[in-house]
Amino acid sequence: MLRAGLTRTGNFGASTEKSGWHLLGNPYPAPLDWDVAPVPAGLSGAISVCRSTSPTQAVYLTRANGLGSLPDGLIAIGQAFFVRVIGDDPVDFPFTNALRTTTFDNVPVYRAAPAPRPVLRLTLAQPTAPALLADEVTVYAEPGATPGLDARYDGPRPGRNVGAPTLAALTPDGQELAVSGLAPADLLGAGTTVPLLLDVPAAGTWALHVADLRHLSGTAVTLTDALTGTRYDLHQQAEITFTAAQPGEIRDRFTLHFTPQPLTDSPLPPSHLSTLPPFVLSPNPATGRTHLTGAAPGTAIEVRDVAGRLVRTATAADSPTALDLTGLAPGVYVVRAGSATRRLVVE
Q: How confident is the model at residue 72 (pLDDT cuts 50, 70, 90)?
């Protein structure tokens, strides 16, 4: 069975980010497994399903490269789904028997274990809302992915949710993704930022929740709120609540930061450890204030966050030097006194 002649033309025009979408349907009396679908050239590797949660509410579920909010990539019997043409030429999509699932038994599949992929999955919902009304975005690392829209690695959103919140990662040119793949060198090595777009149906209190965070232990994963100036360490804080003053789109407020973790207490080679001033931070972890002892009087003291930004300064005194931590977001910071550094955890 062939669905022929899918094109990128339409009311939005062939050159816009909203063109190329097609609504297809599962023609078989069995679920389809999108994860094994033979995606032809010119077609995005992502799929989206619109799940109604009430007569006036709906949420898009997206699957791309084995990840996303559509569970296991399965398309139910009679289920309609969105695909997207991304090339200039017409595309034919083949429905084959190989796409069908043949059993609902919990039969294990024995295959080579895939390489672990660094993954962050965030959800957006009102704190007391049913789980069905949450939206989510997935950011992950895989070789070959780029910051832009990739047919194989990304899952673009077909539209905003209806009567429910929308959460998306933005590409550098502003395209909205439900699944965003990035190269490991970008996500884990040099570090990168991922702007988020939110669209809430009502003013009030909302919550961003870390639904999944794995294989990122060597990377600082933080979320900044540009409106309040707060920075959250997602390894330490799984839920962030915020206030939306009005319903609608929230852009340029929340940004994800992936940064190589500050090194250990000292980034210098072991052979140099004996030359370090033996300064100590106490208490550590700390709340509100910590004290630095052991640095020579007059030594300049700097406190920097995981992005390397200077957040506090002081000068070492004859007695323990108090470092005011008021207003700093909970997380990991680096304190430098002269040529030595220590890691400080703010609670």
A: confident
User: Which two structure tokens, joined as six digits, stand for 82?
Assistant: 């969105």
Indicate the pTM of the whole model: 0.62
Radius of gyration of the chain (CA): 24
If you average pLDDT over residues 43-61, what whole number do you get?
86
